[in-house]
Design a protein that fits this description.
mainly beta; 3-stranded antiparallel β-sheet; 70 residues; two-stranded antiparallel sheet; single chain
């Protein structure tokens, strides 16, 4: 008997928004383990081929905010 196992993969989807700016386009999304991508005009992303199990999501390229002077 031969048993072949195929790793399960999935897709991680999400939305990056800011209360001040709304949807954030162009933010880099990195999955560990997994792949990466960038948010579109609506702030949405979809990254396929992600291995089953826990995944860490890291965002980069977020806008910086300055607090108003008091």
């Amino acid at each position: 008997i031969t048993v072949t196992c195929v790793a399960s993969v999935g897709t991680v989807v999400g939305l990056v928004t800011s209360p001040e700016l709304g949807p954030l386009a162009g933010v880099t999304v990195t999955l560990t383990p997994g792949g990466g991508g960038a948010t579109g005009a609506t702030g949405a992303y979809s990254i396929g081929g992600v291995p089953a199990g826990p995944v860490t999501v890291t965002l980069s390229g977020l806008p910086t905010f300055c607090a108003p002077a008091s």
